[in-house]
Amino acid sequence: MVRGQGTDEASDLLPGTLGMLVLKALARGPRHGYAIAEWIQETSGDVLRVEEGALYPALHRLELRGLLSAEWGTSDNNRRAKYYDLTAAGRKQLAAETAQWRRLSGAIAQVMLST
Amino acid sequence: MLRETLHEIRLRLRALIHRRRLDRDLEDELAFHLAMRAEKYRAAGVAPDEAQFAAHRRFGNVLSLKEACRELWTLNAVERLAQDLRYAARMLRRSPGFTAVALATLTLGVGATTAVLAFLDVRPLPVPRPEELVLLHWTTETSTAGWDAATTFSGCENLHIAPFDDCSVPYPVYHAIRTHARGFAGMAAFSRPYALQVRVGDETTLADVQFATGNYFSVLGVAPSLGRTLLPSDDEGPGESVAVLSYRYWGDRFAADPGVVGRPVVVNGALVTVVGVLPEGFFGLDATQVPALWVPVHSAPRLADKPDDIVARMLRDRSGLLAAIGRLKPGVTIEEAGTDLPGILNAMLDDGGEYPFKREQRPGIALVSARSGLDALRSFYGRPVRLLRGLVALVLVVAWANIANLLLARASVRRREIAVRLALGVGRQRLLAQLLTEGLLLSVLGTAAGLVLGLLGSRIIAVLLVPGIETGAFAWSRPSASLLGLTAALSLVTTVIFGLVPAWAAWRVAPGTDLHSGGSGAHGVRGTRVSRWVVSGEVGVALVLLVGSGLLVRTVVNLVTFDPGFRSDHLLAVGVSPALDRNHPSEIGEHADLLRARLQALPGVRSATWSSYALLGQGKQMGIVFLGDEPNARVEMVDWLNVGPAFFETVEMPLLAGRHVRDSDMRAGSPALWVNRAFADRYLAGRGPIGAAVRLGGAPIPYEVAGVVANARYDSIRVDIKPTVYVPSRAQAGYFLLRTAIDPLALGADVRRTIGSVSPRLVVQEIKDTRLLMAASASEERLLASVSVGLGGLVLLLAGIGIYGVLSYSVTRRTSEIAVRMALGALRQDVLRLVFGEGLRVLGIGAALGVLGAYWTGRFLKAFLFEVQPLDAVTYVGATLVLVVAAGLAAYLPAARASRVDPLVALRSE
User: Fold this and answer.
1) Rounded to whole angstroms, how far apart are CA atoms B645 and B666?
2) pTM of the full predicted structure?
3) Other C-beta atoms within 10 Å of B264: how many?
C-alpha cells in the first residue's frame, strides 16, 4: 500500500497505481528496488511513501508479466543488487496507463472543481 | 496475451527448478534494501545499531514478505501436490499395518483380475494388417454336409452362426472361390497339423506337419528368415516336395544350422527338401498347435501313410480336410467381400460336380474375422475360463469391500486429527485435496504392483493350462491398449474409493464436537452396521470358495487314486511303429514276438506284452460282434482291444474265469477270445461264458470265449465301462506294456536301445508311465482345483482381515465402555467373551450366507466333479471348520487387546 505522510488518513490512491508509478520510475533507466522507492518519495515531495511490503510483490508481479526485466549487478557501494528495467512491453504499458490516468484525473478534476 | 502467459510459465518453471537460487535472490534483494535504509539513517546521524533497528521496523515482517514474494513465483499447484505427496507418504509410513494390508489387498485384487484378463486378452496375429484376414465358414440349414467319414477340418469351433457350421472346405470349392471372388487380395487353404514321421539324418521322430497352398505365406504376409517360404509354383503338380521349417523346429532338430536350406529330410518315407526357415515368433494360426514343418498341399498324397488314409484324401472333392483363409483387398469390408459367394456356390451346384453338399441343405459361406487366428484356446478351455472369470470378479469385489471398510475404520480413527487440523485453519478444500492425494498414492502403488503381478500370473496360467503353448502369442509380452485402459480404470475407481471414503468421513467432521467427544462420535451406528454386513458378506464368499475348492480337491484326489481295474503303477507303455517306407512296407506285427522277448529280458522288467492302444491313453477301438446263431444273430457294437500273450498277468487285470492268454493264441486259426465282465453279464448271462461262441465282424471263423476278466477302464477314467472284447493278435501291436520292478521311466534308454536292436526301421513314438498318464488326464481339474484353493485362501485371508478390522475398530470405539465395565468388576474373560461374541455374530451371519451361496453355486460345479456330489457333507463341514478357525484367529487379536485395557489409563485419556 502506498501511504501518505500523515499516517492514517493516507491519500488512498486507487489500487493499481503503484504499478504505474514503478513503471514511470524506470522510464529513465534501470534502478534497483530501493532506488525506485526513494525516487517516488522524492518526486512526490514526500507525499507518497512506498512500503516494502507493497513494493517488492509489485516488482515481482511486473517482472512475471514481462513488463520488467531484471539483472543482478553491483551497487555503488559494492553490494549485490537486483536492477529492474522496462521491456518494450513495459514501455507500451506505461504509455497506455499514463494516458488513461490523465483522462481519469482530468475528469475527476472537472467534477470536483465544479461549483 | 499468449506470449505473456508463456513468458510467465517459463519464468515460473525456471524458478521451480532453481528453487534455492530464487530463495537466495529474494533474500539478497531484501537484505540490500534493508542495508541501504540503515545507511540512510546512519547518514542522517542515527547510531549504527539504532539505525539497523529502525530500518527493520520500517520494513515490517521480512519473513512474511519473503514468503509472499516466493508465493508469486512458484507454480502453486505443482508445489502443493509435491507437498501433499510428501505428507501422504509420511502418513502412510506412520501406520504401516494399514498401509501394508491395504496395498496387499489392492495388489492381489488387481493382480488376480489382470492375470485372468491378460490371459483372455485376444491378441491379433503377429502379421501385417491382421484385421484384413478372414476365414471361410461353411453353413447349412439342415444337416451337416455329407462329408466322407472323418474328413472334416478339426481345429475351428462351431460358431452358431447357422444351424450347422464349421470351417471345412473341399479343395474344389476353395479353388472356385479363389478364382472368382473379387473382394480378396489373396486366399489360401491349409490343413490342421498331422503327426508324421520325420527322419533327419539317422533319427526319426514324430513332428507336426501342416499342409498349405503355395500362397499361404504371402496371404499372411510372412517373410522367411532363411531361404524362401512356400510359393505358388510349389502347387503345380507332383514333383519334388519341399518343406519350410518353423523357427523353433529349426533350432531343436537342426541345431539352427544356417546351411539348412537344401537339406533333405524324409517325411513318412518320402523325400522332401528344406527350402526355408520362418521367422521367430510366427506360430501359424493357432498358438496351441504350432506346426514344425509346412508342406504344399499337393504333396499330400505322396506323404500319406497309406494310399487311402486321411492325408491322401486332402485334394478330393468329398473331403473337407482344408480350411481357407483370405486377405481382403484394402478398403473392402467383410460384407462387401461376401456378396460374390452365393453366386459362386450356386454355379458350382449347377455344374454337376460330386460335392458333399446339396441344394436342399441350403448351403452358404460366411466370412469370419481371423484377426486372432483360430482361437482354439478360448473354445477348448471356455468352460473353466468362464468359471475363472467369475471367481476373479468375486475376489475383486471382496478386495474392494475390504479396502472400503479399512478406510472407514481408519477415517473414524483419524477424526480427531482432522478436527484439529480444521480448527488450526486448514481450509476444508485443502484437507480434501490432501486426503485424495493420500488415496492417489496408495492406489497408484497398488495398481502398478497389481499389474506387474497380473502379467506374471497370466503367463503362469497359460503355461500350466496348455503345455508347449507358443507363449509369444500372449498379452504379457505386449499388453494391449484395452488391458492398460482397464487397469487405468481400476486405478481410478480405487482412487475414488480410497480418497472419497475418508474425505466423506472428514467432510462431516465438526471441529468443535469432535474435539470434545474425543473422537468417539463414530461414523454412526449405521456405518458400523454396514461394515459388519460387508464383512459378513466376505465371510460368506470365503465359505463358498472353500466349499468349491474342497469339492474340486476331492475330485482331483478321486481321479488320481481311482482304481482303473488294473495296476497302473510301474507299468511302462511304449508306442512303437515301423518307419514308413514305400519300398519296404512292413507291419509292426512282424516284430511283435521278438520285441516282446527282448523287452522282457531287460533287467528291471518283470513281464512284457502288447496291446493296440495304450491303457488310459484316451484312444480306443470299437468293433462289431455277432451273438447267437445265424440267421437270428444279434449285432452289437463293443469296445475292442488287440492284446499279446500274458496281457492280463502283465497289467494285473483280475481273471474271473477261464485261463490266461498264451503264445499259442497268437496263431492265425486260434479261436480264443477274452471278454470283460460287463460283456459276460450283458450278452452271455444264463449260460457259462466259457466256451460261448462269438463271431467278430470281419473274421471268417467263430471265436470262443476262453476267459472272463474284471471290468477295467482302458481308454479314459471318466468314461463308463462298456462291454469289451480282448482279441489275441499280432496285428496293430502298437503299444508294448512292461511291468517293471523299478521306476518305469528309468528304463527309457534301455528300451530304445532294445527296440533299435530288433530293427533300425522301428520308430519309438512315445514312452509313458501309465501312472502319469492317469494324472495327466486330470490336468484340467487340477488347474481348477489349485486356482480355486489359491483364490479361496486369498478370500479367507481378506475376510479374516475384515473381521480383524471390524472388531478392532469396535474395541477402539468402546474402549471407555470396556474400561468402565472392568472398573465395575468385569473379569478378563467377560471382556473376551464380549468381543468374541461380536465376532461370532459376524461369523454366524457370514457362514449362513455362505452355506446358502455354496448350495446355489453347487450346480455350476457339477460338470467338473468326479465321484463327489455338490452337496457333499464332509466338504461342507471341513470348509466351515477352516473358516471358524481362521475367524477365531482374526478375532483373537482385538479381543486380547480389549482384555488388556487398563481402566485407569483409558478413562483418564477421555
Assistant:
1) 8
2) 0.62
3) 12
